[in-house]
Every structure is written in structure tokens, then in C-alpha cells.
Structure prediction request, 331 residues.
Amino acid sequence: MKMKSVTATDLEFSAVGFGCWAAGGSAIWTGTDDANSIQAIRRAIELGITFFDVAPVYGFGHAETILGQALRGQRQNVVIATKCGLSWDAGGTITNDLKPATIEREIDDSLRRLNTDYVDIYQIHWPDPATPIAMTMETLNKLKSAGKIRHIGVSNFSVALMDETRQYGEIVSHQGLYNLLERNPIQYHNIPLEYRTEDEILPYCRRHGLAFFPYSPLFQGLLTDQFRVQNQFDAHDVRSANPKLNGKLFETYYQIRAELLAFAAKIGKPLSQVAINWLIHQEAVTSVICGAQTVAHVEENAASASWDFTPEMAAAIERILQPYHDPVYTA
Ligand SMILES: NC(=O)c1ccc[n+]([C@@H]2O[C@H](COP(=O)([O-])OP(=O)(O)OC[C@H]3O[C@@H](n4cnc5c(N)ncnc54)[C@H](OP(=O)(O)O)[C@@H]3O)[C@@H](O)[C@H]2O)c1
Prediction:
């Protein structure tokens, strides 16, 4: 496995990482099975994947529990990045909450579920405009001093908010929406994004030596060989709330996918590997956190790093995408 590093931390990252949202269970992700998730995570480690991204909110604790079980005996060999700042109530309503007391409770819950006594990178999942970032950072700095977390990261932060955050402590990473077809997206599942990934976040991370973790690198399954038009998801699958995977917008994305599939077939690679390797190839991208439900997914995704993505391939992809620049890159 290809490894990457950044100046902000001495951690090493596998170029292909593992995203654990689907491990949150079949109540949120069609077809997920706990035994398969555990096998997929263990196979990932065998294949050299060392970076695992998760969050308490994925399956309301379930994904962290599954990751904790799968990693038994492997803690020293992996980098765990979990998150704080999204709380849920008994009815399942999710709230942005970065208040100190909430974070202090969240970290202890995460450590217990993950079956570890420290988190390598503790990421603020989404901004909470109701809580001053100075207050949040004070709490996170205390967790660092206590040894419960090694590093602080952010997710879905704008450049301005990162600048403000860094006045109160060190951050080592940004996690944001980024894939072949979502270059400077303005929304994620109908949530407006306050950042433009390719134009703002990537240059910022490069400039400050921060890690960048692109989420939804496979466009939640669209950028794979298996995706079907009439897929689609159970009503409670989180992807049924993605306006780009349903309705009018979807038709355009599906059409571009057909052209990308043809390109992938021409070079003899699965579309998933083309999408992942396009990301790996970019200097600012540190670890591509691919979601995966099965051993077969992981094996295909891990192999993305095993072949050279040439400048000619990059140029051919740009030629395919060029006509769609406005309607899709910035949707
Ligand atoms: N910070 C944030 O706000 C945020 C937001 C979203 C995600 N994330 C993180 O990013 C990770 C990845 O994003 P994501 O889960 O949204 O989407 P993704 O990685 O783009 O897509 C994952 C899905 O693609 C399908 N898939 C994966 N590999 C495949 C393969 N080789 N062949 C065929 N299908 C394959 C599976 O879907 P099927 O179920 O259809 O098989 C899988 O669940 C998450 O797990 C999470 O850790 C973070």
C-alpha cells in the first residue's frame, strides 16, 4: 500500500483509507451486515489500509462499536479518526452541538465503543454556529493534554473558520466532500457547504501542511461498476436523502458515469479504481476514505493504489468532464 504523510503530524496514512458510515447498520445503509463489516475492516488491514474514519452519529454509536470489535489486537497498527459535534435524541433528531459538556461526554462514549484509550485524530464533524469555536477548542486542547486524543481535525469547515480555529490551537486535517464529480460542491444532502473543496480547501491544506481526507470518494456508490439506475435504496438509507442520487440532477450524473465507465473499460480498470486513483494522484489528498460493505469492495478499492495514474489518463478524464463543468461540479 502506498503511504502518505503531511508536515502537521508525524502520523502515516495509507493512500486508501476506510470510511465506516455504512458499518452503522442496515437501518441507515441498505444491505449492511455486521459480520460483513467486521470482515471488510479486517481484510482492509491485511491489505495495508491503516486509516479508519468513523463518527458517533453513524448508526448512533453502532459503527464505532463495530470498528472497535474489528480492530481488536490491531490498535497499534492503525490510525483512528472519529468525530464530535453531532448529537442525537431518543427520537433520532440530530443536532449540531460543540458545547464543552457535550464533547466531554462524547469522547468517553467513543473511547468505550472503540475499545481504546485514545483517538488519533478527533475531528469536529460540522460547525456549530451557536458555540464559540474558542470554547470548543479549549475543550479539545484539554482532551489532548489528558491523552484522550492525539490530534484535532475539522470537517466541513470553511477557510475562514479554519483560520479562526487555528488561533486557539493546532489542527492537523480537514475532511470535506470531494470526488471526480463533486469538485466544488455547494451542498451536501441539501446542507449548504460553506467551502469550495478544490478551489479553497485543497490549496489551504497544501499551504499549511494539513492532511485532507475526501469523503464520498465514490459518490456514495455511483462511481463504481455495480451501481444500478433503479437501485435504489431503502427509504431509510441515508442516500435516499441525497438529491444528487435521486430525481433530475441524478440523470445528468448517471449520464456522465456512463462515459466514465467506458473510459475505465478502455484502460481495463473498474470505475471505482479510476475514481480513487484520480484522488490519490493529487498531492493535497492524504487518505481517500472509501466506504465499503464487503471484502470484495475493500479488495477492489485497496488495489486502486497499485497502478500508475498517468497524466494522459487525467487529461482524458478532464475531456470527458469538461462539457459538464457548470451543471455538475458546482451543484
Ligand atoms: N465528514 C462528513 O461529513 C462525511 C460525510 C459523508 C461521509 N463521510 C465519511 O466518508 C466515508 C465514505 O463516504 P460515503 O460512505 O458517503 O461514500 P463512498 O465512499 O463514496 O461510497 C461508499 C459506497 O460505495 C459502494 N462501494 C464501495 N466500494 C465499492 C466497490 N468496490 N464496488 C462497488 N460498490 C462499492 C458501497 O455502496 P453499496 O452499499 O451500494 O454497495 C459503499 O457503501 C464514510 O464512510 C464516512 O467515513 C464523512
